[in-house]
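Lab notebook, bench 4. Still working through the backlog of constructs that have no structural model yet. Next entry is a single chain of 949 residues. Request: give me the structure tokens for it.
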Amino acid sequence: MAAQRTQTLVLIGHGMVGHRLLEALAERGALVDPADPAGPGWRVTVLAEEDVPAYDRVHLSSVFTGTDPDQLGLSTPEFLAGNGIDLRLGDPAEQIDTAARTVTTTSGAVVAYDALVLATGSYPFVPPIPGADAPGCFTYRTLYDVDALTTYSEALCRGATNSEATNGASAASADGEARTGVVIGGGLLGLEAAGALRTLGLATHVVEFAPRLMPLQVDDGGAAALRSTIESMGVAVHTGVGAAEVETDADGQVSGLRLSSGERLPADVVVFSAGVRPRDRLAREAGLAVGDRGGVAVDERCRTTDPYVYAIGECAQTSDGRVYGLVAPGYQMAEAVADQLAGDGTTVFTGADTSTKLKLLGADVASFGDPFAGGGDGPDDGQDGGPQVTEIVFSDGREGVYKKLLLGPEGQLLGGILVGDADAYGSLKPHAGRKLPAPPEAFILPATASGAELPGADALPDDAVVCSCHNVTKGAVAGAIAEHGLTDIGGIKRCTKAGTGCGGCVNTLQAVLDAAGVEKPRGLCEHFPTLSRPELYALVRAEHIRSYTELAERCGSGGAGCTVCKPVVANVLGTLAPELGLRHVLEGEQAALQDSNDLFLANLQKDGTYSVVPRVPGGEITAEQLIVIGEVARDHGLYSKITGGQRIDLFGARKEELLTIWRRLIAAGFESGQAYGKSLRTVKSCVGSRFCRFGQGDSVQLAIDLELRYRGLRAPHKIKGGVSGCLRECAEARGKDIGVIATAGGWNLYVCGNGGTGPRHADLLASDLSAAALFALIDRFLMYYVRTGERLERTSAWLERLDGGLDHLKEVLIEDSLGICAELEAQMDRYVAAYRDEWQAVLDDPAALARFEPHVAGVEFLEPGRGRAAVLEDGTEAALFRDGDGEVYAVGNRDPFSGADVIADGIMGSRDGVPVVASPMHKQEFDLRTGACLDDPKVSLPVLRVPTA
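Model written out:
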């Protein structure tokens, strides 16, 4: 049906799928040339219901965290004008006359067509319950919905009454009453809506009629892990119940939700996200066939019962009898129709992969293939005639992780579910329907616990689809890398569109890059392209370099630094402080190098508050100290938790509270536990020979001595220790970087163990050591690691990288093959002698104290290279930055990804010559001139007026 003359195509709907059709036609050269309007090709008229062009609904929730809606736009005026497309916003189709081949719009305009494509999408289902239309009830589907929900909720949270919120009022009341939002629906959109309400500051409930969350994507085990994670974030979950009635107050505003169980939930906002229904009214009224449960019936070419009318996306019931609610199948339907209109007509749509990978309320959730193969939540026993299905399951309830793979009778991967940790999604999904290239345990067990190495991209066949959204194969990506000399993910996105949809395939794309032999830069970053961390450390030590500025002038490539090199240099200067004559990690220019944790000597949490962790050496604490910790937690409203490292964490402290908390803890004999730094964390111990009848050594005292000797030592990564009083190993010392176990002959020293996501048993370095020999060997081990470890390299990975591994360590540290043992011990002695509690050092330094004020009084108080929060005249909270040349920048202080007001605490630097700040949350970088996120172009910070001094 390729147009050999000028023909008219009418597209009803300008959503993501409709716009993809326009792109596909343009890519095929099928649209009329505006310079030759009478020439061959399709002249397109688009009838859009919304008053904005197509936008990315997949990332709609990012608007709640500060993304400018314009950043979600998919279309540009240049694209429309360059392809002669007549886009009519806010004038949707009202009637189709298939006999006359015309469409009438709500404005009365009549548009004739040679071909018509319905891309009308779907509408939210609102259950027919009393009160569902009351003010305070919303759906969650469009930018209009987001704006209405945001305006209403923000008014509520500012203290306005419900009626004032309805009118957009911002008047605040004094009651301080917490506001509550309820989402009806616990599927994909429902959990996104719950995240939005939480971001808007509402206490949040989720109500799901099914017995579990996300019933179409995950099974009972996955739903339980997801629920645990969501509830740990303060979101209340109610499953197995429905909504019976929205209750209202005297003004007719939402006041509560009555459940089918009879329970009442207080509510100021109700969001309906209980599924969608195909928008097929136009087709029904035009006499086109529709499915029994809705959806315009189409054949494998997406053609309706009228040969001149097509339907794509969520409004269509496809030839396999399904209505697809995901964008990837819609894109494939658009390709099929574009091929009918402008190609050879061979492309068909007979079904689609519904694999999904999402982050919902901070939890990774993914499913692929047929996640319910075999029936229900359990394996098929084969008695119903179905194939034998084998389940491989890994579950960790403590971490909220659940993974399940389903294998067919021949060992082929049928499908799977990943919750809490979806890193393997990119490796697994392309193998759906095929045999796995490695044991299934390798894909779901934590890191190397399975004993098998995870296969790389070279194990994928070229026809494996790595990007479902745009149906891009591994072969297409590899071909683009070779043809265009691509070296990064951005290049792959530009050339193939892979990775530009949901983003779930990015890790796989990186694996394809790696498999293609694309070399990674040798250096630390663009500012030090020729120096690794060990080389940088050696240079600073040998040349006695005392600042980042001096180092950059000597061997940098220009620019203002970044989140990679600045913390590394700060770390190196901290370790070498006694050699360089430096006193404190926050002294002078060093403060501008520190990440937020080291800048405020506390751990940044997801809401922008901090946790405070006093040192409790060896886990030994007095009753009086316990009382003080309890009083501090009570007085400051902090959440307290005993950790696996045998100390107590206090969560929820505001930055300006830290100094007061530290003073009280220091007065009780505590000091900083350095839980925030790449340094020694804790040395865990059992009770040893003091109480245990099996104890062969005083493990408590040794743990205390170890922790006090190595406290605060900055290293390539964090260091953990453990001391067990006998071979029963109650302190789990062999899972630590430094593990010591008492024996009848002294102490055994184990090194380079690791727990967490990549567990590794430590290796025995030496046996039956005296205490003096033990400390000397640990001195050497730690200082050698500090000298030679790469950035963020744990000792376990360091040992595996070292040529010769454990034998090399024994040669260097025991046999002294390099002749540096005495030097390593002496360097450690100097470090220990110079140690000073970092909390106390801040309290003694007026310049450091000023950084803990919540807001800066004016730009004149800004330090070069460091940000501060400020409140502008209109009440907006800004993040102000001054660069080394004195230029001042002002952007919004709210991190668009987390919703926390923390941008001012991020590291300022440069990227490709552009002045940037990196969010302290997850390190996304923002252009300080434009506010644009350089890692996600759909997200940005508002650029604000710089206040005068």
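Notes after review: The chain is about 25% helix and 20% strand. Residues 771-788 form the longest helix (18 residues). Flag for follow-up if needed.
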